[in-house]
Amino acid sequence: MAHQILVLNGPNLNLLGAREPEIYGSDTLDDIVAELSALARNRNTEIRHLQSNHEGALIDALHDARGWADAVIFNPGAFTHYSIALRDAIVASELPVVETHLSNVHAREEFRHHSVVSAVCLGVVLGFGKRSYVAALDAVIHHLDA
Q1: What's the structural domain count of the chain?
Q2: Contact 139/98 with Cβ under 8 angstroms?
Q3: Is a pLDDT exceeding 70 seen at residue 1?
Q4: Could you tell me the residue range of the domain that residue 83 belongs to?
Q5: What is the CATH number of the domain that holds 134?
Q6: Strand ranges across the sheet with 45-51
Q7: What is the tens place of the pLDDT at every residue in 53-75?
């Protein structure tokens, strides 16, 4: 494979499809990862996926990715808004990271309007449901190929 990409998902994303479908859609996380994996294969790219509700497991995954990944697509969930530890792990990974969200966080509650990780990411894609992940995949492959 030309590229290897970690798709990393934070807390509560394991409940996609059942949790607030009016905000997050009806697709499960498995549906999203399956679609991404198929699209990635068509672009000579391998996806590895991890979801965790635990901040430390996400940090460990970013540290581990240093040894094998070319990039990361990361939906930190609620950790987006306050986890300096995840921000620091993104920096330490030395990998291009695309912050990704299903919903438009800026159209939601005020506390969701600020991300502590955006400033250390290659870019941010949000508000397009599962298509946010597809756009992130396209963007990060384009970045790696450039």
Answers
A1: 1
A2: yes
A3: no
A4: 3-145
A5: 3.40.50.9100
A6: 45-51, 3-9, 71-75, 97-101, 123-126
A7: 999 999 999 999 999 999 999 99
The per-residue pLDDT for range 7-48, each reduced to its tens digit, is 999 999 999 888 877 777 789 999 999 999 999 999 999 999
- As annotated, the active-site residues are 24, 101
Tokens linked to 12? 């509560």
Q: How far apart are CA 27 and CA 16, in angstroms?
A: 6
Listed in sequence order, the DSSP H helices in the chain are 21-24, 29-41, 55-65, 84-93, 131-145
What is the rounded CA–CA span in Å between residue 94 and residue 43?
A: 23
Measure the N-to-C terminal CA separation of the chain; round to a whole number of Å: 17
